[in-house]
Specification:
Elements lengths: L1 E3 L3 H12 L7 E2 L2 H10 L14 E2 L9 E5 L5 E6 L2 E3 L2 E8 L15 H7 L5 E6 L5 H14 L2 E6 L6 H13 L5 E2 L10 H14 L4 E4 L15 E6 L6 H15 L4 E5 H6 L9 H20 L3 E5 L5 H13 L3 E7 L3 H7 L4 H6 L21 E3 L6 H14 L5
Parallel strand pairs: 1-4, 8-9, 8-11, 9-10, 12-14, 12-15, 13-14, 15-16
Antiparallel strand pairs: 2-7, 3-7, 4-5, 5-7, 6-7
Length: 405
């Protein structure tokens, strides 16, 4: 038995598979089923289905494996029996291991069969919500329900940080819709609006709806940059100057005041947050993810985090960006692109000499690759650049974007 923790969207899909909200689906789709859904919007056999439901697993998991799927806190949620691999994605049925442990409004996370039993006979108007319903929309829902002689089922779609706020909005709306039932559903949004609406309607019908009313998309107006969380993420070879620039930026921001600043240097994190990790690719990725998690938590609460690891792999840097943006923070990537020859010439810690001598395996730039960013917000080469000038360039980026006044 092997183990894996799916990402947030996959966990949401897993919960809906296990609850019956995705019926007739009982597992993650095979490549043939995905192709059928993409091409014809139907599962093999003719059942209408709007969206591929997939899960990505590491390559070591193959057909026949039984994989325990855990939530981020380590609780075992389900077992996936892998029947097919297609690239990074796996397919197969899932079986529940335990009742999921919910957070806020746990009492409203109910299975479709439970909800259907409690609904009155006759028409049921389901209202799927990703944000509050304004007065005009509530009046329209009430009028529609009266016209259909239907009970009202309010379905706040709880996914991500805004989930509790959507539930609170649904409970408030229920006060104006006497007899309305509220059930929280962890349906992640889809980028394609049409697909998102079709999936919402399908789930609503599994909860007992005979009619579906899609609440309007929420109007999200982010706060001004100086009040939003920000992560300034430096990446570059050892000896490139990234840590020195990052410390200079920290000092300059502390002198200005106005923002809470957290500095996460690669070496310091290694000693504290990531003590015990090796320098294998897997452990280096794990180290960067830990830095990203802490930085995202800083950004979640409106702080400014400065990170200065080597972070040689593009995919892991992308993961950190996604962590930060998922909590509503902003992310700036600074590539300190000092050439290898200059970094090696400096070799302040003697690391390159040891790597050349074969004493340090998997050393970035020598025996292990550095994937140069293609999405950097700022690129600096410190070969002929003073530290003050480099710090000034980053500070200008931060102030011109409005994150620091």
């Amino acid at each position: 038995m092997t183990e894996w923790t799916p990402d947030a969207r996959e966990l949401a899909d897993l919960e809906l598979l296990l609850s019956g909200a995705y019926a007739p689906l009982t597992g993650f789709l095979t490549s043939a089923e995905v192709e059928s859904v993409v091409e014809r919007g139907r599962l093999p056999g003719g059942t209408s289905w709007p969206d591929p439901i997939t899960i990505a697993l590491p390559d070591e998991f193959g057909p026949g494996d039984r994989v325990t799927l855990r939530d981020p806190e380590g609780a075992a949620v389900a077992v996936l029996t892998v029947v097919e691999r297609d690239g990074h994605h796996a397919a197969g049925p899932v079986e529940a291991l335990d009742v999921p442990a919910y957070g806020p409004f746990a009492r409203l996370r109910r299975r479709p069969e439970e909800v259907r039993k409690d609904l009155p006979d006759g028409e049921v108007l389901a209202v799927t919500m990703r944000g509050p319903l304004d007065g005009a929309t509530l009046d329209d829902v009430a009028a529609t329900a009266e016209e259909l002689d239907a009970a009202v089922l309010l379905m706040p779609l709880v996914f991500g940080e805004g989930g509790p706020a959507v539930v609170r909005a649904a409970l408030k709306a229920a006060e104006r819709l006497p007899g309305a039932t509220v059930v929280a559903v962890p349906l992640a949004p889809r980028e394609d609006t049409e697909i998102d609406l079709e999936l919402r309607e399908h789930v609503a019908r599994n909860y007992g709806a005979t009619e579906h009313y899609a609440g309007p998309a929420p109007i999200s107006i982010p706060g001004p940059p100086h009040k939003r969380g920000l992560v300034v993420f430096f990446t570059g070879l050892s000896g490139s100057g990234k840590s020195t620039i990052a410390r200079g930026l920290r000092d300059a921001l502390l002198e200005r005041g106005g923002r809470t600043v957290t500095y996460l240097d690669g070496d310091v994190v290694r000693r504290m947050l990531s003590a015990g990790l090796t320098f294998s690719r897997e452990d280096r990725d794990r180290n960067i993810r830990r830095i990203g998690f802490v930085a995202a938590e800083v950004a979640r609460h409106g702080g400014l985090a400065i990170c200065a690891p080597i972070a040689p792999y593009a995919a892991t840097r992308d993961e950190v960006r996604a962590m930060v943006e998922e909590v509503g923070g902003d992310f700036l990537l600074v590539h300190v692109a000092t050439p290898l020859e200059e970094c090696e010439r400096r070799d302040r810690k003697g690391l390159y000499a040891k790597a050349r001598a074969g004493l340090i395996p998997e050393f970035t730039g020598i025996s292990d690759p550095y994937e140069e960013p293609e999405d950097a917000d700022l690129v600096l080469d410190t070969t002929d650049m003073t530290i003050d000038r480099a710090v000034g360039a980053v500070l200008n980026l931060v102030t011109s974007g409005g994150w620091v006044r």
